[in-house]
Amino acid sequence: MKRSGKQNLLIGLAFLAPNIAGFLAFTLVPLVVSLIMAFTNWDLRLHNMFKPGVAPRFVGLDNFYRLFAEPQLGQYLGNTLFFMAGTPFCIAGSLALAMMLNRDRSPRSRRALAMLIAGAGLVSACVMLALVGLGATGMVLLVTGLAFAILLGGMAGGSTVYRTLFYIPNFTAGIAIFLLWKKLYNPTSGPVNAAIRPVVTLIQAIVLAIPTSAFTLLAYALFALAMLALIWGLRQLQHACRSAEMGHLSIVLSTIIMALPLLVAWRIHWLIIPPYAAFGVLLIAVVYFIVTTYGHEPCRADEGLGTALLLACTVLTLEFALIGLAAVCNELPHVARQGLAPPEWLTSYYWAKPAIMLMGFWAALGSNTMLLYLAGLSNIPAELYEAASIDGAGRFQNFWHVTWPQLAPTTFFVVIMSVIGGLQGGFDTAKAMTNGGPAGATTTLSFFIYTEGFQTGRLGYSSAIAWVLFLLVLAVTAFNWKFGRRYVND
Amino acid sequence: MKYVFMAAFVLLVLASAATHFAIQKNSGEVPVLYWVTDDNPARREQVRRFHAWLEKNHYPSFELRTDSANRDVSKTIIQGVSGMCGDILDVWSGTGDMVYFQQLGILADVTREGVDMGFDPSHTYPSIAPQITLHGRQYMFPCNVSCFAPWVNLATFRKYGQPRPPWRWSLEEFEARGKAFVAAANPPGQPRQVFFVDAVSVDQIARSLGVTLFNETLTAAAIDDPRYVRSLKLVKQWTYQDHLIPTAADLSSFSSDSGYFGGSFLQLFHQGSYAMVNCGRYALVQFRQFGPMELAVVEPPNGGFPTVSTATRAAAIYSGSKHKDLAINFLKFLASKDYNSQVVDDADALPPNPLYTRDEAFSHPARFPTEWECHDPWPKLQEIAIGPEFSDFVPSSTVWRLVALYQDRYMNDQCTAEQAVHDLAVEINAEIQRTLEENPVLRPRYQQMLALQREIEQLRQGGRTVAVEWIDNPFHREYYRFKGWSK
Questions:
Q1: What pLDDT score does B258 carry?
Q2: Could you say which of B247, B252, B319 has the minimum Cβ distance to residue A346?
């Protein structure tokens, strides 16, 4: 190497040195140490600088065995996965928002003028209501005033104003947002319940006016719809298998996933489906596929696994939603007779998780995901849309055949990052808003790691939990990588 | 670019040197000790008085500074085991932190100094002594001692035409009076705005019925007992059925930002939303800001064994401190008249040294004649006060987490009371076995205590008395005395 080359290398390394030192000191070394710790019995009560001569001992896989025997592990893992279920909605919301913000809103366009007139009308209506003594709450005026200000801001600055506004939650410190949402969720005086209360009262009146048998019928109709959704899903799989688009592994896995709601449905007391009947249906479904698809065009066993799982998850969500609605319909008359009330949100065992999820959805809308989608959208060549419109494509076809495929690399990246973030998250929210309660309803794996490590002092054990979480993240990411990348490359 | 790099490098070196010299300049000529505590006017006054006390008594001079940024227990643990903690630590005895800190080895043993310098456990309340010592060794001295008993707002009772609660009352009497009160205070068909009391502790009720978390020797959970089940059911009934106590949602609706001394629930008490609140004498600090109030203090309701829980904020010395010899003076100060008279005047709980509760200054403070009825009950409550129990065979943080989890599960209809106490006992016992596996040093003592437990149970089955020294659990010691089961 020439002297100047060496000099440049040294200078380059000198520039990189602080970063490399930081990475080594705060990332690589702790990472390696935590891996080693996971296989030791390091407990602060036994091993620290005040306990000379007592060193942590290698315990093999004991910490991992203990974790899997932990009585609350199922609940904490379930909570983590429940929060993860919000990820697709967050991504879809961010995409929708990015698409809206991507449109050029010229300050002098007709649309903007219409929005301004609508905003002014809204505020005038609220002021008039307030003047006659109706809806004269500070919150109503504040919200409408704010909405008007936002519309006006949009008029003046176009999309840039909206983009900035939507990104503001990302600038705000987490704890401030948590405190804000705690106030919003206040069961009695919170604005959320203040808005819901009249709706709940109206629903109660309607429900009490309708005979109970109508709700029972509706519940069964919804359950039948859920079964139809399952049948539709199975038909799709069958077609795909016959045309050699899906292999046997893909078919069997997705069939099992789609039949899962049946196994859950028997737990809803009004649905008299014993577990063996549910297993029977599942078994019949699997055998049916093996028989009907046997001998058709051969393909790889995992052919089309990504598509199959996507289809299965969509059908699964639909089935759960319909079965859940059916259960609500069945219970509604009984509950209405006792008096319907808005949710107690963070203090209720059943509502605490959805409440946190809803807050997460709000925060995710204007997050980095939205920015990534905005960047992705601006990179789609206009010629593609022109070509599509010449072919007679409508709005939906434009989205489905141009926007969505073009955004595939962004979506792939966003999904991977969201899944990783989702599995690792939940600690700060739980710590600030619910302390993991009520009854462990919001305790996630990351919160459990903190409790075991910093409150009980079992550093080895909490490292083991952290590494199990890492393996879970790795498995999900590897799955995404393997099956998601195909669609990106296609 | 290399010049930019060099310039940045030189700037960093200069900034480091400037910081180094600035720290040296700030450190002054006398040693500086840090007291990890909260920052409030009382603490600042205590530091001022401490410096004056040092000077008056010609003790070695040093500067005491408060450090309110590192009060979190997790921070104390991590900083403590890393050798970076404050010299004097505030430790709340109610959560078992002392046992945990002692196991970590971060607390200095002050037994000898306590005897030599006059702040050994005999200088505080008998109920507090087990909370500042472990296996006969002293690790801290109380700063202010609290009993948790109901404060009564007499004006609220009068407003709703209800009689004043008696000094001592049974669970049945509490329930009957509570139902009558909430019926009178809340118009039918409207949201509940007024409650009988802010909270009732399940453990407090259970103790008054004769059952507590652990057995006599602290070797096993003892809550899988019908009396604990009854306590759980009573609290749930009073909360969700009779509405004597606010639900979690009611509390959340009430919540407002709380300041010094957690004012919100005391403000609600002052406003009349709660007829009674469970709090220590330190509530007077806040009440004095509200202006004159008609107050009284009564015992918590009991199921046959009158008792009240007590705990203390105490000061301990960090074993890694470079100035342990100086810090020890602070513990001596806590037992002195200079410190105790401030606690008496401020009404910041009970003074650590009970001698100072026998003064007129404590019973009848000249500046607050409307309070005269409210001071003497506290030393009287100390006579039936029992501190919390902590087993060194299981981390107290784990026990509290499990207790809260299972109580919550029952309150949220996730299981029956019987299931909750059974599962809780099973889990606590499993945690004890796990601790013994992790820490073999504890095993010989555990076996010894287990043998003792068997002996106690045999004696009790035979209807014979038990030597009180055999009993480690502070609750059982007092309960055995009360029942006449101990020698």
A1: 45
A2: B252
